[in-house]
Every structure is written in structure tokens, then in C-alpha cells.
Predict the 3D structure of the following.
Amino acid sequence: MNNPFPRSFYFQDVQKIARQLLGHLFVKIQSDGSRLSGRIVEVEAYAHNEDPASHSYRGKTLRNAVMFESGGHLYVYFTYGMHYCCNIVTGPEGEGNAILIRALEPLEGKNIMAYKRFGKDTLSAKEYSNLTNGPAKLCKAMGIDREANGLDLCGSTCWIEKGKEISDPQIACSSRVGIHRAVSLPWRYYLKDCKWVSKARIHHE
DNA sequence: CGTGAGATTTCCT
DNA sequence: GGAAATCTCACGT
């Protein structure tokens, strides 16, 4: 419990980190000290170099500034006028790599997550399966908004910690979801046959 | 089951 | 002015 991954974890290759994140836990500590957590089952990598789909592609702006901080920070952005999505920043300061967390399997604090997302703590089976199976859904359930933008994942109230080890054969990859540029790059990684993976469809050119 | 429109801020052309 | 790393709801099959 409460054993965040060290800073060095976030300074490996972004694709390698993206694969390694699968199966580990995304943890957020609430103001009363209790834990909300979920197992990471789906991520997407966004690289600083030659990746037109990355927010960092055209340089630093007010919104994406955290993406250019050093590895181990949380980059939260607001999109479509209503949703938040959260990313793990990787690599040295100034590079602009990040990994979008796309789906979680809810573990600790499920009734709190249910309340944050649906305004009630008892969910139908359908609502429960929709609790954290998308990037904006999991942010709502975990209580992540612009306040969390820039959080240090090494010693604050939010981090990644060790979960069940996932072997390579259980990992699948595909095109990224919801983007129209660099669609051919297979930088979405997810756990095969996992019911918590998002249902979002992949765009084609 | 599938498809399509609307919500509404931030950034880019 | 228009698209965007999304989601939900309405409506037709």
C-alpha cells in the first residue's frame, strides 16, 4: 500500500512504459486519506517526435505545458467542451511525451467512484460496466479535473503502484482511438479479452 | 443492436 | 470558423 513507482520508471522509452503500465494500479488519495484505485487495462502512447496526433506536436501552449515537464507528472486536459482526460508524462523535461490512460478495472473505493460519476453509490450492472471504461469516464469516477493537472506522481496524492504482473501474450495493440492523424501508428495497448477495455471505435482514414 | 446529433472550451488556420 | 486523444441520449431496426 502507498508505494508509488520511482521517478526512474518514467524515464524509459515511452512505448515500453505504455506496455508496462498495463496491469498496474492507478491510485488517487482523497482528502480523508482513503484510496481510490483501478487496474490499468488500456493506454495510448503519444510521442514528442513525428507524431502529428500528439498535443505536443506543435510546441508548448498553456493547455499542454505539463506535457513538457519531466517524466512522472500528471497531464490533465479538457476537451470537447466537457470532458477531462489524464496522461502520464514520460522522458526528460522539454520532450513532450505522454501516455493517455484509456480504461481501468475499478478496485478500491468503487462506491465512491460510483457516486462521483453517477451521483449514487448503487449501480445497475450496465452502469457498473461503464464506470471506468473510457478516458473521460475514469477521470470523472476518480475525481480528476484541472486541479490535478501537473501533479507529481512521485510523492503526492496520485501515483502508479505495482499490480498483478501481465505477460506479453495478454497484451494487444492497435491504432489509437478518436484521432484522425497518424492513424496507422499502432500505439494503443490493451489487455486481450478484458471486459473493462473501452468500447470506443477506431477511426479510419 | 446500430447510427447520429448535441454539449461547449481550447487551440489552430 | 471549425475541429478536437469523448460521452450520452434519442431514435430506427
Observations:
- Residues 58, 61-64, 77-82 of chain A lie near DNA strand B (CB under 10 Å from a C1').
- The CA atoms of residues 91 and 172 of chain A lie 24 Å apart.
- DSSP finds four helices and eight strands in chain A.
- The domain at 7-191 of chain A is CATH 3.10.300.10 (3-methyladenine DNA Glycosylase; Chain A).
